[in-house]
Hints:
It comes from Vigna radiata var. radiata (Mung bean). The chain is an alpha+beta fold. 14% of the residues lie in helices and 32% in strands.
Amino acid sequence: MNASIIDPLQGDFPEVIEEYLEHGCMKCIAFNRRGTLLAAGCNDGSCVIWDFETRGIAKILHDNECSSPITSICWSKYGHRILVSAADKSLILWDVMSGKKITRIVLQQTPLQARLHPGSSTPSLCLACPLSCAPMIVDLNTGNSTLLKVSVSETSNGLIPPSRNKSSDGITSFTPTAACFNKYGTLVYLGNSKGEILVIDYKNGEVRAVVPITGGSVVKNIVFSRNGQYLLTNSNDRVIRIYENLLPLKDEVRTLDELNENCGDVNNSEKLKVIGSKCLILFREFQDAITKVHWKAPCFSGDGEWVVGGSACKGEHKIYIWDRAGHLVKILEGPKEALIDLAWHPVHPFVVSVSLNGFVYIWAKDYTENWSAFAPDFKELEENEEYVEREDEFDLIPDTEKVKAPDVNEDEEVDIISVEKDATFSDSDMSQEELCFLPATPSRDPLEQQDKCAESSSKLLDSNNTGSPSEEAGPNGLMMNHASSLLEDDAGRFKRKRKPSEKVLELQAEKVKKSSKSSKLAKPKNKSLVDQDNVTEVA
């Protein structure tokens, strides 16, 4: 990997923490397809949905039967369903709009990850990767599950059980296996403990191709890019690998059948490797050659141009960003809290990361004001300059210029009903209504907060003559509004607050002047009263 850092201004990727979200102790996150909603699984078994535009809570999903930490969370294609897996071995499917539980299935093992079938708007199948057994296809309607093959025998087509490693105390342990659907859900790509990528037709459980990974290390993560053209793997040898998908996106199964026929009579394992070489080809490798860190939750950006991975080291919150050519372009350093999950926004240059303490940090691009972009002849001034305008400069029809009539047909009807197709979501079914936003439902404050509000309102009534209790005089006599400043907590996290407008600041300044004048007029009046009292006493 070329470790040289290129100019970060060339790329559209996040650079700083814009703000953070806080609700209980969050463990995992996932965006919906449009990036308008962000779902987070919590430590108490609940699922909170944030409106990413307003950064407010849109809905909270909670099942009384589940109080264990959420291990993964997944949206359906059009956002109407959410599937969560929990540490109590359960899978829960939610209806997002109503907030009702559709079904709950308990597995034999704890699912570390669960993914809904991406080819259906109301999926009934999911892919679950348990802790200590092979990945399985689960029917959410019936609860039936089908184990997938995790390896291929050298002599036959038989099923080989999940890899087992004996520990020092003699107890047999299972190595977790990573798996994911391809773009349209026709195949499952599985990374096993032998350092292989298996291409599986999940409908009949047949292994269609095998792609060996250099080094043969255990595959911890496997994920496709949004467009389905690239596959990412994260192995135990601390290397992130990108493979280019050579199969057509919509005819994978038919192409695999043709490749199988062309191979002829060859040993089964060799035939699968030959087919695998025509399915995936190694494109890039990413690693930190100096620190040799393990990677956490690597993934692609929304457009597939960037690759991001979090450092798995304890006590640090570092996010590495590479371009697809293999250059390291940015290292984001957050608070001293371990990173456990991250996700890239599907459309915009946002990265959302989860810390071990349960906070969700939003990383955004640090935009600088460049007014010269609005006009090529715009010139920024260091200070004000006197300008003498021309006599006809502000005339409706200047004599020095000829104003061209706008080349617009004002009689033409404007179409405000039809929706233009977004190239980012070219596979959208326009007949299927997509859930992008949730209506906000106001909730009543607890009794304690209501009492505090009553106390604060009484304080405000008492302090009408002296100014607002949330304001203090600044060095220039202006009133400083604490509610509009940038708040910082003990851990050094910042939350963005709205700044007061210029009109508000002017009104505050006038209020200060009036209060100071009234205080000056009151002082001599008090003095004259004291003198009168002294005169009466002498008399």
